[in-house]
Amino acid sequence: MDLPATLKLVIFIAASAGVVYVSRSSLLSLKTHGFCRFLAWEAILILTLLNVDFWFYKPFALPRVISWPLLCISLFLVMHGFRLLRTVGKPDDRRQDASLIGVEKTTVLVTEGAYRYIRHPLYSSLLFLAWGVFFKSPSWSGVILAFAATAFLTATAKIEESENLKYFGEAYREYMKRTKMFLPFVV
C-alpha cells in the first residue's frame, strides 16, 4: 500500500518537529553530539519515508530478508541500551550539560551488558535501523541517506566520546581501550 505524498510530507513535518523539540538545546550548539545526532535522525526519517511503501512488499526477496534481522537487532539494542542507561547509569539532573537529554545524563559509567563490548549501543541501534530501512528498497538515494546517517552517527559518537572523557576522565579512556565503538570485536 502506497502512502500518498501529502501524508508523507505531514509525517515528515510532524516527526521533524518532534526531533527538533528533543534536540532544541543541541541545535544551538553545533559542536555537541546532539547536533550530529539530529542530522542522523533526519536522514533516517527521510530514508524511512522513502522506503515505507516497500516495508512488506515481497517479504522473502533478498533485500527484505536482510532487512528484518537488522531491524530486530536495532530494536533489541535500543531497548537494552536505554534500560542499562536508566538502571546502571543513574541519570541525574546534577549533570549540567544542556545538550544532554534525559537518559544521557548518566552519572555512572555503564560497562555491562552491550556496553561491555561497545560504547554506543544506542547509536549502533540507529545504524542497524538505517541499514535495515535501506534494505527495504535499496536505491541510490537510499544508499546516500544510509551513508549520511552512518557518517552523522560516527561524528555523534566521536563528539560524545570527547564529552564523556571530560566528565568521566581516565575511567572512560580505559573503557575506550577495551571496547569498540559500534560492533563488538569489529568497529
In short:
The protein is mainly alpha-helical and 187 residues long. It has helices at 5-27, 33-51, 62-87, 121-134, 140-168, 170-178.
User: Taking all residues together, what is the mean pLDDT?
Assistant: 92
Helicity level, as a percent range?
A: 55-70%
Radius of gyration: 17 Å
Global geometry: globular
Can you describe this structure?
By secondary structure, the chain is an all-alpha fold. It is 64% helix and 0% strand. It is built from six helices and no strands. It has helices spanning 5-27, 33-51, 62-87, 121-134, 140-168, 170-178. The longest helix has 29 residues, at 140-168. It is globular. The protein starts with a helix and ends in a 9-residue tail after the last helix. The mean pLDDT is 92.
Features:
mainly alpha; 64% helix; 187 residues; 0% strand
Topology:
Elements: H1 5-27, H2 33-51, H3 62-87, H4 121-134, H5 140-168, H6 170-178
Helix pairs in contact: 1-2, 2-4, 2-5, 3-4, 4-5, 5-6
